[in-house]
Backbone:
């Protein structure tokens, strides 16, 4: 019996060793009346995204959405004040938008937490920061007017 218990403990240790979570965000935000708040984070292919949310006064928000950019919705919740640990498998490396929408007249104070479980050791130090780069492009053309 002791051998089975030792083997079970060893297997659970090995399994949990590959399941190290990396903290991406742990935020408290105030969503204004009839406003939305947007956050952007990057994830590597094969990651597991773990998302949790709570509205501190229990009143709820109208919509919460997680979108794989440019426009593939991966999760959406309506009229909610709590989400436990929602796990989403990341199918390809890219940026993800987290959208919180409050349709009420009063403000909402919310907490959300985002963690990731890397698929392997190579992606353990993946940079989740999303950078915006504005590029200007000018095009010149000539118009010929005949008289």
Residues:
């Amino acid at each position: 019996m002791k051998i089975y218990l030792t083997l079970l403990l060893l297997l659970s240790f090995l399994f949990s060793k590959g399941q190290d979570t990396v903290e991406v965000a742990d935020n408290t935000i105030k969503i204004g009346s009839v406003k939305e708040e947007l956050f952007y984070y990057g994830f590597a292919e094969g990651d597991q995204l773990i998302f949790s949310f709570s509205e501190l006064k229990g009143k709820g928000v109208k919509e919460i959405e997680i979108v794989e950019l440019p426009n593939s919705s991966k999760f959406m919740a309506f009229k909610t004040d709590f989400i436990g640990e929602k796990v989403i498998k990341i199918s390809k490396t890219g940026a993800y938008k987290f959208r919180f929408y409050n349709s009420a007249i009063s403000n909402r104070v919310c907490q959300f937490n985002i963690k990731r479980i890397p698929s392997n050791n190579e992606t353990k130090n993946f940079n989740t920061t999303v950078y915006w780069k504005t590029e200007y492009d000018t095009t010149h053309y000539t118009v010929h007017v005949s008289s």
In short: The radius of gyration is 22 Å. The chain has a mean pLDDT of 87. The CA atoms of residues 47 and 119 lie 5 Å apart. The longest helix spans residues 2-17.
